[in-house]
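ugh finaly. both done.
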Amino acid sequence: MPSVRRPPQKELERLTRALRMLSGSNRALLRAEDEASLLREICRVVVEEAGYRDALVLRAEHDSGRHITLLARYRHEDSSGFEGLTWGEGEHGRSATGTAIRTGHPCVVNNLDVDTFPAHWREFARRWGFHSLLSLPLRVEGQVYGAL
């Protein structure tokens, strides 16, 4: 009988967390009474069921400055500094969130001390206690709406 190759334990754990997050998000979608409660619940699921330390949902504004607005969060209490976030091409748009929104692709910063991440955003993230970041674009009808 041929041997079955099993994924490494870390990969299985990652997949399990992703499935728990997807399942919890689907439950939140079914139970949500409004957009704000849905987004807060998804942030909670990301933290409590998927094992992330903090979760934020940010919306891409289509104003002249391409600003980013905080819509929901879980565990992250400090909301100062969001007024500087943009998703534009300039220096202030080169955050993980700005990049994910602008490109429509996930942006991963594995280690703020090593990765080529703009210095002002590195200090901003460190102030919040972040050492790595994952920003996922959120889409509505094919258009990037914001980021998780």
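ok and the 2nd:
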Amino acid sequence: PYSKIERIETLDPSISLPEKIFGAPPAQDWCYYYQKISLARQQEDWSEAARLSDEAAQNGFQPRDKSEWIPVFEAYANTGRFESAAQVAKKMSKNPDMLLLFCSQIQGRADLPASYNYEYVFSTLCNTPR
């Protein structure tokens, strides 16, 4: 309730920090992809989020924390890639507490973007017996 997510300017171009001061950029591992996927999700650019998810998988990266599958699942669900979404949902189902929290947060929300496939997301993750 204290976050002001609407203040985040997601459309501004990213800046390059001077290596002399900050050092070399970190390796492009799962954390790099997760941040990029999450940004694309905030921008409702589901195609870019799905593309980045594919790229991360092709490079052998995946989360250790099951909750980090959420934006990947949403990217696939919101681009109509239901087979890919179903594969991710299987991985997510290994953490029922995380799913319960996620489902309670999206259930009945009226402020989800028009591009969000609520029916598919909710029926896939939240209406399944545990």
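summary for the 2nd one i guess: The mean pLDDT is 89.
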